[in-house]
C-alpha cells in the first residue's frame, strides 16, 4: 500500500497513515460475478460486504444492479472508498446489524481476535436474511494479522449453532468461479435453516 504496510489494531481493523493509499486490496472479478449470479438466481437485491476495504466489490455489485453497501474498520474507509464504504469496527461496534439478502465477509474473521469472534458472528447472522458468504482463513494459511484462523469444519459447526447450514451447491460454484487461491480454498455459502 504505497510502500507502507497496514498495521492491524487490537480488534483486527487496519490502520494506515493518512497519506497512504489503500489501493492494493485484492479483487476477484470472477468471484464477484459469481456472487451477482447467486443473487440474481434467487431474486436477492440487497448485499452487504463486511470488510469491504475501498469498495471494489461494492462498486462491482452496484454496476450489476444490486443494492450494495460496504463496511470496514480501515481508518478513513469512507474517504478512501469515495463514499462506498462506511468505517465500522465490527469487533467493537455494539450493534451494526441490519437486514440484507446476502452478506459477504471475505478473509476478515481470521483477523478478529477470539474474544470478539462471537460478537462479530452474531452481527453477521443478524444482518443476513438469506445468505452468508464467508471466506475464513484456516490455520495453515499465512498472512499479516492472522490471529484467529479456523478450519472449515469449525466454521460449519459454529454457524450451525446459529441455525445456518451450508448451501453446498453454491459453495461449489463459488469455489469453481474464484481465482484468488484463498477464496477457492476457504469460501463457504450458508443459508438459514428453515424450522418446520
How does this structure look, described?
The protein contains 7 helices and 9 strands. It has 196 residues and is of the alpha/beta class. The strands form 2 sheets. A 7-stranded mixed beta sheet has the order 5-4-3-6-7-9-8, with helices on both faces. The longest helix is centred in the N-terminal third of the chain and has 14 residues, at 29-42. The radius of gyration is 16 Å and the shape is globular. It starts with 6 loop residues before the first strand and ends with a strand. The model has no long low-confidence stretch (mean pLDDT 92).
Keywords:
single chain; 196 residues; alpha/beta; seven-stranded mixed β-sheet; 7 helices; 9 strands
SSE layout and pairing:
Elements: E1 7-8, E2 14-15, H1 29-42, E3 46-50, H2 56-63, E4 67-72, H3 77-80, E5 85-87, E6 100-106, H4 114-127, E7 128-135, H5 152-160, E8 164-166, H6 168-177, H7 181-186, E9 187-192
Amino acid at each position: 500500500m504505497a510502500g507502507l504496510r497496514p498495521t492491524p489494531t487490537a480488534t483486527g481493523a487496519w490502520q494506515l497513515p493518512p497519506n497512504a493509499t489503500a489501493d492494493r486490496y485484492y479483487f476477484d472479478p470472477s468471484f464477484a460475478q459469481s456472487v451477482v449470479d447467486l443473487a440474481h438466481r434467487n431474486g436477492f437485491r440487497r448485499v452487504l460486504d463486511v470488510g469491504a476495504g475501498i469498495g471494489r466489490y461494492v462498486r462491482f455489485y452496484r454496476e450489476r444492479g444490486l443494492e450494495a453497501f460496504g463496511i470496514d474498520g480501515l481508518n478513513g474507509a469512507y474517504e478512501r472508498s469515495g463514499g462506498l464504504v462506511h468505517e465500522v469496527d465490527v469487533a467493537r461496534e455494539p450493534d451494526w446489524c441490519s437486514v440484507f439478502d446476502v452478506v459477504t465477509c471475505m478473509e476478515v474473521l481470521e483477523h478478529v481476535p477470539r474474544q470478539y469472534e462471537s460478537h462479530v458472528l452474531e452481527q453477521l447472522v443478524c444482518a443476513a436474511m438469506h445468505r452468508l458468504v464467508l471466506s475464513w482463513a484456516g490455520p495453515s494459511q499465512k498472512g499479516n494479522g492472522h490471529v484467529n484462523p479456523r478450519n472449515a469444519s469449525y466454521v460449519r459447526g459454529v454457524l450451525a449453532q446459529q441455525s445456518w447450514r451450508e448451501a453446498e451447491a453454491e459453495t461449489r460454484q463459488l469455489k469453481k468461479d474464484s481465482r484468488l487461491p484463498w477464496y477457492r480454498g476457504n469460501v463457504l455459502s450458508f443459508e438459514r435453516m428453515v424450522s418446520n
